[in-house]
Amino acid sequence: MSTARPCAGLRAAVAAGMGLSDGPAGSGRGCRLLRPPDPAPALPGARLLRLPESEAASPERSGWTEALRAAVAELRAGAVVAVPTDTLYGLACSASCSAALSCVYRLKGRSETKPLAVCLGRVADVYRYCQVRVPRELLEDLLPGPVTLVMERSEELNKDLNPFTPLVGIRIPDHAFMLDLAQMFAGPLALTSANLSSQASSLSVEEFQDLWPHLSLVIDGGLIGDRQSPECRLGSTVVDLSVPGKFGIIRPGCALENTTAILQQKYGLLPS
Prior knowledge:
Layout: H1 8-14, E1 47-50, H2 64-76, E2 81-84, E3 89-94, H3 98-108, E4 117-119, H4 123-129, E5 130-131, H5 136-142, E6 147-153, E7 167-171, H6 176-185, E8 189-193, E9 217-220, E10 237-240, E11 246-251, H7 256-266, E12 270-271
Parallel strand pairs: 1-9, 2-9, 4-7, 6-10, 11-12
Antiparallel strand pairs: 2-3, 3-8, 4-8, 5-6, 6-7, 10-11
Helix pairs in contact: 2-6
């Protein structure tokens, strides 16, 4: 891939859409907005599982293992699951399941030209799904954390995942349940915000209750962040690292200052 302008099209497409939030999108392809789901019928809806309240919850705690096993089973079956992350509530599905990817777009009413991020469980996994052009120490300084790192994708990823761009955004949320889930699932998860496109992102499961009937499982991890904070719904900071020696901020997000300090001061990357 040429390094002269490798991500101009991507930035237009993900300026507000990479990671875990939605906004206007653009792309070289026609931008077709999928219809949001019809009003939900009077059905029980998704299965709701609450995680233990303590952040120090371990796999041995009551409810933790049950939620992990249930989520992995649903994801492997091609379902869409609502999950808590370190920034917002998200919708996750197997990135290798094309039908599940289509379901996410349809459920959210999301433009087909807006990419989904990929959630992984370990920094070592990034090398399988991306062409990494930064030091491993840089990845370990930022991941896990509230950032999405955009790099050139490898052939390992499903071609139906974001087929309009050679790049992909990688997330490793700093959230105990999501780390356990991604490691137990042992494959790439597609991740996006738990809300209809153009609507506010969600900090609690009640805020996206209209989507429950269209999901197979909702994992309730309690309130995420501080609703009084102006940064509470900004989502992850999205950084383009596809050009060697440079970085580009695609979305400021909630961790901009710390992220840019690490990239510039510690690793000497130049803003593009």
